[in-house]
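Researcher: Let's continue the batch. This sequence belongs to Putative FlgN family protein, and it's 162 residues. Same format as the previous ones, please.
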Amino acid sequence: MESLFFNLSRLLSALQEKLADMLQATEKHNQALRHNDMEALRLALQELHAITAQTRQLDRQREAVQAALEAQLNLPAGATLSETLQHAPAGLAREMHKTAGSLRQLTEAINSMAALNKILTQNAMQFNQILLAGCQPAQTTYKPGGQATVAAEPLSLLNKTV
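Model: Same format as before. Here are the C-alpha cells for Putative FlgN family protein:
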C-alpha cells in the first residue's frame, strides 16, 4: 500500500510540473493575443495542446492509483484526495498535502488567465466582424460623383417562367 501512496505522490508532483508548464504556455498565449502575433499564437496553442494531452494522461494514472487505494482502504468509490491522504504515512501525507495545495493554486491561476484570454479572443473577433462589415457594405454604396446607389436585388437561381 505504501508503494501506491508513493506512486500517487510521484503522479501529483508530475501533475504539478505539467500545470506549471501549462501556466507558462497560457501566459505565452496571452502575450500573443495582446501583440496580435499569429505565429506566436499558433505556437502557444500547439504547446498548450501537447501539455493538455500529457496532463490528461497523468490524471488518468492518478485516478487509477487513487481507485486502487480506495479499494485497499475500504473507502467509498470517488473519495476525495483529502480523504485518501488521511490514511497515508505521515511524512508522505504532508508532502502530498503541499503538492495538492500547489495544484489548486496553479489551477486557479490557469483559470483566471484562460478567462482573460477568452475576453481578448472575443474582442479580436468583434473587431474582425466590424472590419469585415466595413469592407463589405450591405446595401448602399457611393459612386465617384457622390450619388448613392442601391445594390440590385440578387438574381434568383430558379427559373420561374412557365
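Researcher: Any comment?
Model: The chain has one domain: 2-150.
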